């Protein structure tokens, strides 16, 4: 496909051959000349697509990308870290190693006394949904209510021995 340019025109046109109109040129005996890097036509400035980026252009591009990055980072709110008094530690009474680990964690992180709850749970990786609803949820809720921690606890940390999965609910 050959480009033909009319003198004084702002754009380039496809040759009639490229448009399926034969070989008749739009402007007889004139072949398109390469545009300079920048051409000004009245109020319109055009740029040659083959022009290489100079250092000034790269600096401008980097400055714009950095400004966009700063704006995006400023719009993202910082994450709040959990405080030690916002944790409840849950262990399995049937596996004493979990309670030992929870006590070590409590001391290392400065978690207040009375934040470890031990429940009699199965020693497997799964707990049935019905057992979870009957044996875990009410006990945890009562533990939190009895210590007036409803507005304090944001995270329950489970330890070694607490089942990892709850089986599907059977209807």
List keywords for this structure.
alpha/beta, three-stranded parallel β-sheet, disordered N terminus, 171 residues, elongated, two-stranded antiparallel ribbon, 3 helices
Outline the secondary-structure elements.
Elements: E1 3-4, E2 13-14, E3 38-41, E4 44-47, H1 55-75, E5 87-92, H2 96-109, E6 116-119, E7 126-127, H3 129-146, E8 155-158, E9 165-166
Parallel strand pairs: 5-6, 5-8, 7-9
Antiparallel strand pairs: 1-2, 3-4
What is the count of DSSP helices, taking H or I runs of 4+ residues?
Answer: 3
Sheet/helix structural class = alpha/beta
Q: Based on CA inertia axes, which overall geometry fits?
A: elongated
Low-confidence stretches: 1-6, 8-19
Instruction: State the separation between the terminal residues, measured CA to CA.
Output: 69 Å
Helix content: 25-40%
Query: What pattern of helices and strands is seen along the backbone?
Result: EEEEHEHEEHEE
The side-by-side strand order for the widest beta sheet comes to 6-5-8
Oligomer category:
single chain
Q: What is the radius of gyration?
A: 36 Å
Strands, count: 9
Describe this structure in words.
The protein is an alpha/beta fold and 171 residues long. 31% of the residues lie in helices and 18% in strands. The chain is built from 3 helices and 9 strands. The protein is elongated and about 70 Å long. The chain starts with a strand and ends in a 5-residue tail after the last strand. The N terminus is likely disordered.
Give a quick precis of the structure:
With 171 residues, the protein is an alpha/beta fold.
């Amino acid at each position: 496909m050959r480009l033909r340019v009319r003198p004084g025109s702002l754009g380039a046109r496809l040759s009639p051959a490229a448009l399926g109109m034969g070989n008749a040129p739009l402007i007889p005996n004139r072949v398109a000349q390469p545009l300079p890097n920048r051409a000004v036509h009245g109020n319109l400035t055009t740029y040659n697509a083959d022009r290489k980026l100079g250092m000034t252009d790269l600096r401008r591009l980097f400055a714009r990308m950095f400004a966009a990055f700063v704006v995006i980072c400023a719009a993202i709110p910082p994450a709040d870290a959990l405080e030690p008094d916002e944790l409840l530690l849950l262990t399995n009474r049937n596996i004493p190693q979990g309670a030992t680990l929870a006590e070590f964690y409590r001391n290392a992180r400065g978690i207040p006394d009375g934040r470890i709850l031990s429940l009699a749970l199965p020693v497997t990786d799964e707990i049935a949904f019905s057992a979870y609803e009957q044996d875990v949820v009410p006990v945890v809720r009562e533990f939190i209510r009895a210590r007036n921690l409803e507005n304090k606890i944001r995270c329950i940390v489970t330890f070694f021995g607490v089942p990892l999965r709850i089986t599907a609910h059977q209807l």
